Amino acid sequence: MTDTPRHNTAEPQRGPQPSAVPADATRRSVIAALGGATLGVAALGLAATQATAGTEHRDAARPAPACVLTPEQTEGPYYLDLETVRKDVTEGKAGVPLTLRVTVVDAATCAPLPRTAVDIWHCDALGVYSGYVAGGSTPDTTFLRGVQLTDSAGVAEFTTVYPGWYVGRALHIHVKTHVGGTVSNGTYHGGHVSHTGQLYFPEAYNTRIAALSPYRNNTAARTRNARDGIYRNGGSSTVLTLTQAGSDLGKGVTGTVVLGIDPAATP
């Protein structure tokens, strides 16, 4: 199953269909087409951050940029225009701690892109998104959503939790990059969206995570990466490289990825 534009069939989810969104949040008008269509995307090589079963424990220090234009993927029906600038997006949500480091580079030059707004959102351990009436969520919540500006090395870092899953989708984090805007009163304003995509996780880690609390309370059937139609259209280039904090997976992981973008693009 795939994410779909909001005017068509909604993204598969856990629990009832969303019926409300926050009054103060507006939906962006552009949702990427189905089928993983890449808007002018040309893959120039293998992404430096593609993870495989044999390389899941690679060093999670900032990865070396690679000149690869990252494929566009669908926005899905759960994006909200909150654009709240904050590093810690957990809001007390239970789950395995995840330090997420996203490096943004110019796909044409490999140069890091400082002050690019990286906007993420994802579901909690039980497959629920904030801001929607579904699966116990309430329309005035904002957990697991936030924006960070990249530093001089092109890196944006978030404190979040490993996401859960819902019917029809592999575990994933949604991401946008915004260019040319400004920050005031803790909110990112203006500019334009230069990339919309999704980040994924190595299956070996997903299986181990599913056995931990609170993930083991998630009763939805878990879809593997290889069976997710969206993942199959470019998702392998944005699999996070994960490193455990220690011998106990429950103590947390660090995930890194490189996004190669065209900062002038307006997908």
Describe this structure in words.
With 267 residues, the protein is mainly beta. The chain is 3% helix and 25% strand. The strands form two sheets. The chain has a four-stranded mixed beta sheet, with no helix packed on it. A four-stranded antiparallel beta sheet has the order 3-2-5-6, with no helix packed on it. The longest helix has 8 residues, at 203-210. The protein is globular and about 40 Å long. The model is unreliable at 1-62 (pLDDT under 50).
Compact summary:
This protein is mainly beta. It has one helix at residues 203-210, and strands at 97-106, 117-121, 145-149, 155-161, 172-184, 187-200, 241-244, 253-261. The strands form two sheets. A four-stranded mixed sheet has the order 4-1-8-7, with no helix packed on it. A four-stranded antiparallel sheet has the order 3-2-5-6, with no helix packed on it.
* N-to-C series of helices and strands: EEEEEEHEE
Uncertain runs = 1-62
Rg measurement, Å: 17 Å
Q: Estimate the mean pLDDT confidence.
A: 81
Strand content: 25-35%
* Largest β-sheet summary: 4 strands, mixed
Distance between the first and last residues' Cα: 23 Å
Strand order of the largest sheet: 4-1-8-7
**Secondary structure: helix percent:** under 10%
Structural class: mainly beta
Report the total helices. Answer: 1
By DSSP, the count of extended strands is 8
Which word captures the global form?
Answer: globular
SSE diagram, text form:
Elements: E1 97-106, E2 117-121, E3 145-149, E4 155-161, E5 172-184, E6 187-200, H1 203-210, E7 241-244, E8 253-261
Parallel strand pairs: 1-8
Antiparallel strand pairs: 1-4, 2-3, 2-5, 5-6, 7-8
